[in-house]
Amino acid sequence: MRTPRINLFLLLLLLLTSGMALAEKADRDKPIDLEADSLSVNDAKKISTYTGNVILTQGTLTIRADKLIVREDKEGFQHSTSTGNPTTFRQKMEGKDEYIQGSGQRIEYDGRMDKVQLYVKAWVKRGEDIVHGDYIMYDANSEYAEVIGGPQAATETNPKGRVRAVIQPKSTRKPATKPAADASPQDAPAAQDN
């Protein structure tokens, strides 16, 4: 049985918080290791569905989800949707001892458009920089990012669910310590109210 190749571009989400940053380029050439409680493959439709404690690892990239659906279009581009409570990702930055990590209830990746979207209670973090929203999108082709707040992003300290970001001054940035392998919303520091 073939394992669908996923060229995950989650690494570029970092542009939401500061400057150009690339994840480990070597990850793209590493094998994908997928674990799940069950797998369903429809070769005719080129869809694979992994369910139950899904863990995808490719080099330094790790994605954890309750469910991961991967499909390949007619031109060979991969599209994936991971869902969970939450679904998380983590990947090492190129040439740095620093990681990008993020979370949402759903993460969608469009290989054709090089676009990634995080939905519901979404956050992305690099080092001490973090952005929270109900929806986070990054389009790598146009280098455009968007973060939208909403009621589902509401917390006790942010009852209106407004977009929150904490961006450290360059002079005070410290290399990130290695985060736990399982990033979760409670691991992400909350943005403070103004």
CATH superfamily membership? Lipopolysaccharide (LPS) transport protein A like domain
Strand-residue proportion: over 45%
- Rg on CA atoms, Å: 16 Å
Q: Count structural domains.
A: 1
Outline the structure in words.
The N terminus is likely disordered. The chain starts with 32 loop residues before the first strand and ends in a 28-residue tail after the last strand. The chain has a single domain, classed as lipopolysaccharide transport protein A fold (Sandwich). Strands 1, 2, 3, 4, 5, 6, 7, 8, 9 and 10 form a 10-stranded antiparallel beta sheet that branches. Strand 7 and strand 8 form a beta hairpin. With 194 residues, it is mostly beta strands. The chain is built from no helices and 10 strands.
Topology summary:
Layout: E1 33-35, E2 38-42, E3 47-58, E4 61-72, E5 78-92, E6 99-110, E7 115-126, E8 129-139, E9 144-148, E10 164-166
Antiparallel strand pairs: 1-3, 2-3, 3-4, 4-5, 5-6, 6-7, 7-8, 8-9, 8-10
Based on the model shown, name its key terms.
single chain; 194 residues; mainly beta; lipopolysaccharide transport protein A fold; 0% helix; 46% strand; globular
Brief overview, please?
By secondary structure, the chain is an all-beta fold. Helices cover 0% and strands 46% of the residues.
